[in-house]
Design goal:
Layout: H1 18-21, E1 31-32, H2 43-59, H3 66-85, E2 92-95, H4 98-106, E3 116-120, H5 125-138, E4 141-145, H6 154-168, E5 173-177, H7 191-198, E6 206-210, H8 221-226, E7 229-233, E8 245-249, H9 251-256, H10 291-305, H11 310-329, E9 334-336, E10 346-351, H12 356-365, E11 368-369, E12 371-374, E13 377-382, H13 389-400
Parallel strand pairs: 1-11, 3-4, 3-5, 5-6, 6-7
Antiparallel strand pairs: 2-8, 7-8, 9-10, 10-13, 12-13
Helix pairs in contact: 2-10, 3-10, 11-13
Length: 403
């Protein structure tokens, strides 16, 4: 594979990130496996949010003194995310969440009636719904790229994805929608290889990547730089505050797409609405954002950096998810969705004879928090660097007692 997710490295200093874990009050008195839904906010990030809010009030929320502070805070985070994405900072735009990051540039692309959207069968309902509405309005076609059944190793998955992509691409295909890490099965998708294959198609379809389960959990630069739209959030694996996300856009999307929701931040200058749009990714930003959230996410990313590189942290996450996956494999009546050890921190499984929603409630009553998914109908537990082996063993023990 082009992305080296199977190569284990030594865990970073402070294995299992006890320093980071101590920053997370949400982990007190509970066993938490829902990082793929929302990560806990560190104390230092909460303090940074509060300090930023206080500083804005001290300067005056709408004074000449406050703008340098606002611009410096947003510029630092934009540059930090650009480094993570492996792209120039002018190709990074801020959004509120993953869905906005997918939809805002998507709806601004130059569509022609009859164009086809090729969507994987493992995409999040929010993104699928947006694509369906776009297709209704613009007279587009929708086709499906099957990836839900790919349960083997990432290398096997890569070969089959590329084969199926070749079969599914047609003369009308204009966009491919494919998540970096599938939110339901936990399988890794070969984004860079898919992007390379699309370059050989006569229409060079755009590649939209939902990266909700990627940033903060694994290295993303290769995939983000290869995609046309790579949309992330800060509130999952980054353990940042909810309400702030980002997207990395290709040069051609910046060049070809027009803004859909438009506000003062979309404009190169505020001049009675006569100004043109920014020439870079900022044309997809809209209006006022909650600046203290920027300080919170910046702090969360710094705390993660202190525990090692993205690849080093992934090695820890993999070690923990493999322990959970192996423990589940050993229990009669439990089947993991992936047939090989997970490439990252998502571990999805089914328990024979038990309703997933009821099991979530039963485990929650014991202070163990996982979640259920509808398609496929299963359970999902996530391991992060702050997860401990003891917590994993506790979950496995509880599941082993089910009858």
């Amino acid at each position: 594979m082009s992305e080296s997710f199977g190569q284990k490295q030594a865990p970073p200093k402070g294995a299992f990130a006890e320093r980071f874990r101590q920053q997370l009050p949400a982990l007190a008195n509970k066993t938490y496996f829902n990082y793929g839904g929302q990560g806990p906010l560190p104390e230092a990030s909460l303090e940074a949010i509060t300090a930023s809010w206080r500083r804005i009030q001290e300067l005056g929320p709408f004074t000449g003194d406050v703008w340098p502070f606002i611009e410096a805070t947003s510029a630092r985070l934009r540059q930090r995310l650009a480094q993570e994405f492996g792209v120039p900072s002018q190709r990074v735009a801020f959004t509120e969440n993953v869905t906005s990051g997918c939809v805002l540039p998507l709806w601004g692309l130059p569509w022609q009636r009859g164009d086809e959207l090729l969507i994987s069968d493992c995409e999040h309902p929010g993104v699928v719904a947006a694509c369906r509405e776009l297709a209704r309005r613009e007279g587009l076609q929708i086709a499906s790229l099957p990836v839900a059944d790919l349960r083997q190793t990432p290398a096997d998955a890569e070969a089959r994805v590329l084969e199926r992509l070749e079969q599914a691409l047609g003369p009308a295909t204009r966009l491919v929608v494919l998540s970096h890490l599938l939110w339901n099965t936990g399988q890794l998708m070969p984004i860079a290889a898919v992007a390379k294959q699309l370059q050989h198609h006569p229409r060079q379809p755009w590649l939209l990547v939902d990266a909700a389960q990627s940033l903060g959990a694994m290295p993303v630069a290769e995939a983000a730089a290869a995609a046309d739209i790579y949309a992330c959030t800060g509130h999952k694996w980054c353990c940042g505050p909810e309400g702030l996300g980002a997207m990395a856009l290709s040069e051609r999307v910046v060049r070809e797409a027009q803004p859909t929701l438009i506000g003062w931040r979309s404009l190169s200058h505020e001049s009675n609405g006569q100004s043109g749009f920014h020439a870079d990714s900022r044309r997809f930003e809209v209006a006022t954002s909650c600046l203290p959230l920027f300080a919170g996410l910046q702090t969360s990313l710094a705390l993660l950096d202190a525990e090692g590189s993205a690849q080093e942290r992934l090695a820890v996450i993999q070690g923990l998810s493999h322990r959970l996956w192996s423990g589940l494999q050993a229990i009669d009546g439990i089947s993991t969705l992936l047939e090989s050890a997970p490439p990252a921190g998502l571990v999805s499984f089914q328990v024979e004879g038990h309703n997933p929603e009821e099991l979530v409630k039963q485990l929650g009553a014991k202070g163990i928090w996982i979640r259920s998914l509808d398609d496929p109908h299963c359970l999902r537990a996530c391991t992060h660097i702050s997860t401990t082996e003891t917590e994993i063993d506790q979950l496995v023990s509880e599941l082993s007692t089910l009858r």
